Amino acid sequence: MRLLFLAVLRRHTGNAVTAQRVRDHLEAAGHVCILKDAFDFESPSEISSFIKAENLEAAVALHLYRGGRLLQGNGIPFGIIFGGTDLNEDVNQGDKNKVMGKVLEEARFAVAFTESMKETAQRQWPHAKDKIYVQSQGIATVPNTAFNWNTFLQCSEINQSADNLHVFLLICGLRQVKDPLYLVDAFSEWHQEEANVYMVIVGPEVDPVFTREVKAKVKRSPGVRLIREMAQEDLHAVMKNCFALVNSSVSEGMSAAILEAMDLEVPVLARNIPGNAAVVKHEVTGLLFSDPQEFVQLAKRLVSDPALEKKIVANGKEYVRKYHSWQEERQTYRQLVRTLERSTED
């Protein structure tokens, strides 16, 4: 079957990584899957022309609003994967909420990453409850074995021996919902007490205005560094070498970076929001903080308590192995896409 896959494909963002992984699943099942950026199309009529020109038979969209609304009324069966901001942010805007409800009426299936995302969607659009499935993100990490950590530290202007260094890594696109500045002041204060702790923020410049604000703030904050986005394999290598992964988002669907860190046996400190609390169990698979001061307390505790670090790393690795199987994710999407195949035969 010839499939259109619509997603927001900003390089090196969680959505782009998820879209590429799901596309691989569908192509492995023998489908031709054309992955397109939702921002390349302005209206359903543009999508309609593309569908005809490419002779496409069905579609999948990642993000109910940004991708899903473009597929409405095009006469081909489609399924939806919730992104995160669609259920956490867009749902609170009346017009968008109404559009998303209509999209769900037409969709053959919808995939939520967590039970809580499914519950949110069911509360908003009860008519769609029988077509919403839960499938966690499947995780596979591939660190670049040739990656040089010391060179990375030099490029990040961290001129210290790697031996006694504690690098806290924050991976996010520079936009307000990811709140990369949330911990900067508190972390900078800590760095001035203990010069061997650093926070490195890595990610693409998504919002140009906000990016300028982030750069200006980081520039005047000792112990905090900002690095441009990097290839997935290099990012996994950085993750593997850092002391801990940090997530300070205001809202998340399901953070792939958190799950990748667990898979790479790196401890996770995450802001206590529903999307993060769905995968990080406090003091079991990671540590959850509610404000910058609590983050610093927990980070200090992690640095000084190797037994705690060892415990949460082992539990995190086991959690990902058990609940975020890449093979299981592949099987789910294969089965769901078969429902679209049957629709094209009707």
From TrEMBL:
Subcellular location, principal: secreted
Compartment(s): Secreted
Keywords: Glycosyltransferase, Secreted, Signal, Transferase
GO molecular function: glycosyltransferase activity
GO cellular component: cytosol; extracellular region
UniProt entry tagged with the keyword Transferase: yes
Annotated ranges, domain Glycosyl transferase family: 160-318
Signal sequence annotation: none
InterPro entries: Glyco_trans_1 (IPR001296), Glycosyltransferase_G1 (IPR052622)
Domain of life where this protein originates: Eukaryota
Pfam families referenced in this protein's UniProt entry, alphabetically: Glycos_transf_1
Family statement drawn from the similarity comment of this UniProt entry: Belongs to the glycosyltransferase group 1 family. Glycosyltransferase 4 subfamily.
Protein name (database record): Glycosyltransferase 1 domain-containing protein 1
Organism of origin: Ovis aries (Sheep)
